[in-house]
Specification:
Blueprint: H1 2-18, H2 28-31, H3 37-57, E1 65-66, E2 72-77, E3 89-98, E4 103-106, E5 113-116, H4 124-130, E6 138-143, E7 164-173
Antiparallel strand pairs: 1-2, 2-6, 3-4, 3-5, 3-7, 6-7
């Protein structure tokens, strides 16, 4: 009798498991149409906003300020130098991570890059953050995808439609 019960149970599990439908994550490109592009964009923005809020729940000590573009920033070490202006050549150290902590870019120690403010290939969100800084400032910045690398990512380490967390130090200006 025990063998029959185990056989029936095994057969039942086999049948039940074979009927489970595996759903794939929908590809945005597959669901896009001209008619629904606005709704799709709104849904992406809403999900990104939720992801940022969840991230900030884990970083309650970050006293974020939000700009009109959606950029969020927190100066955690204040400098005493001049403020950045349009066309300045800013010398910066930075690291870029994703909300899940994945490191995309990390500056080697004692190295920096020069960024021409408002006139370089650097994403809009980082340009905006630089103009909020003074020489010596260290800032945490959350850059939503629409002012980051957008729908394409950077074609290297930053995926499409990704929120970025940037830790930036303004070393000087030329």
């Amino acid at each position: 009798m025990l063998k029959i019960s185990i056989s029936i149970l095994s057969l039942g599990l086999l049948v039940a498991c074979s009927e489970v439908e595996v759903k794939e994550t929908p590809n945005i490109a597959d669901s896009w149409t001209k008619d629904n592009s606005s709704d799709l964009g709104k849904n992406i923005a809403i999900q990104e906003e939720i992801d940022i809020k969840l991230f900030l729940e884990r970083h309650r000590d970050w006293e974020m300020t939000t700009t009109g573009s959606g950029l969020q920033y927190f100066v955690y070490k204040e400098g005493d130098g001049d403020t950045v202006k349009r066309k300045d050549l800013a010398e910066v150290e930075y690291s870029i991570t994703l909300l899940d902590g994945t490191v995309c870019y990390l500056m080697p120690p004692d190295e920096y890059v020069e960024v021409k403010v408002d006139q370089s290939e650097v994403e809009t969100g980082l340009q905006e953050a630089l103009k909020l800084m003074r020489v010596g400032d260290k800032m945490k910045v959350i850059i939503p995808s629409h002012i980051g690398h957008g729908i394409l990512g950077d074609m290297d380490k930053i995926p499409p439609l990704t929120t970025l967390v940037v830790d930036i130090h303004l070393l000087g200006m030329k």
